[in-house]
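pls design
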């Protein structure tokens, strides 16, 4: 390459070359200034966003506390609801068929409840209820009632 031609070109066009370089530098400075201003605006807006997030977090915390209180209330109420069921069908009398008599055990979460027994005969039907406290009856249970109670005690919630 001929360096003399290049040197002559630069000497003849020195002013436009310098003007182009200065314009390029000014354009770079303007772009940097714009980016700096945008970043500064974002940083200035951040506390507002942070305040919004903190407010939302406080609302979520309040909601969570409310839900925990409601859950505790539901758990307390559920403990007294019927949760365990046992059922046994049988023939109460030798002359009756079809297993129309039954024993039904209904217990809550503390295993308190009752056994309801229905004895069906050709001439009459009788219904008995026997209490259950902590899974045990203070009254003597028939084998069928004991079976219904056993099923209830071992049933899943």
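designed seq:
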């Amino acid at each position: 390459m001929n360096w003399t031609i290049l040197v002559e070109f630069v000497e003849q066009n020195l002013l436009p070359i310098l003007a182009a370089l200065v314009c390029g530098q000014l354009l770079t400075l303007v772009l940097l200034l714009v980016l700096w201003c945008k970043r500064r605006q974002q940083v200035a807006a951040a506390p507002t966003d942070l305040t919004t997030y903190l407010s939302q977090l406080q609302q979520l915390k309040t909601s969570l506390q409310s839900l925990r209180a409601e859950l505790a209330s539901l758990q307390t109420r559920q403990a007294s609801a019927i949760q365990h069921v046992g059922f046994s069908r049988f023939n109460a009398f030798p002359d009756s068929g079809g297993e129309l008599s039954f024993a039904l055990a209904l217990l809550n979460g503390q295993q308190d409840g009752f056994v309801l027994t229905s004895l069906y005969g050709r001439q009459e039907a009788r219904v008995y209820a026997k209490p259950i406290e902590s899974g045990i009856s203070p009254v003597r249970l028939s084998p069928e009632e004991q079976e219904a109670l056993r099923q209830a005690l071992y049933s899943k919630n």
